[in-house]
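[SOLVED] Need 3D model of a two-part complex

Original post:
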Amino acid sequence: AQTVTQSQPEMSVQEAETVTLSCTYDTSESNYYLFWYKQPPSRQMILVIRQEAYKQQNATENRFSVNFQKAAKSFSLKISDSQLGDTAMYFCAFMKDTGNQFYFGTGTSLTVIP
Amino acid sequence: GAVVSQHPSWVICKSGTSVKIECRSLDFQATTMFWYRQFPKQSLMLMATSNEGSKATYEQGVEKDKFLINHASLTLSTLTVTSAHPEDSSFYICSARDGGGARDTQYFGPGTRLTVL
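Solution:
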């Protein structure tokens, strides 16, 4: 079975600063996908960033980047130049390559302070 | 990006009635759709996986006779909560898998808030 752990239930960051959200996972699969989703107060799940496990290069999307450490089974999200609109719940998610199952972490509530 | 819609966005019903929630992929074909349930300040709990043209696969502990899922086409899946009770009140989210091309990922609908009186 796969498990996803987010050890930071709540975090805060000053506007324009950088913050890192941690995520670890456990799996015996050799190939898989990892995701970060954002859920703002509207509760719409929004894809932030996606990483294929077979790619060594860390994914980046504008102000969002990941630090993917496959051996350590770690997948942290770095948000640079934090904006007020980044305030949301952030979920780390794992998907097996051959299956459709998504496994979500428990989430980290991020507050950007003006 | 891909768009997934849900209807209705919120619904209030009396105990004992049935409620149908629709999930549509608007600009891609989704052979697989997923239904999640989310309680306040908690993570998403997968309820079932819906495959077009076949029976849904339910997660352990989810009553298939209570939560009826139909995936009649490549762009539509429905979740019917039968004989709803107050404990069924929750936020229900669907997602659709876009397996086309090189990007295999899921896109989520905006969710449906169900309140059972």
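Edit: The two ends of chain B are 37 Å apart (CA to CA).
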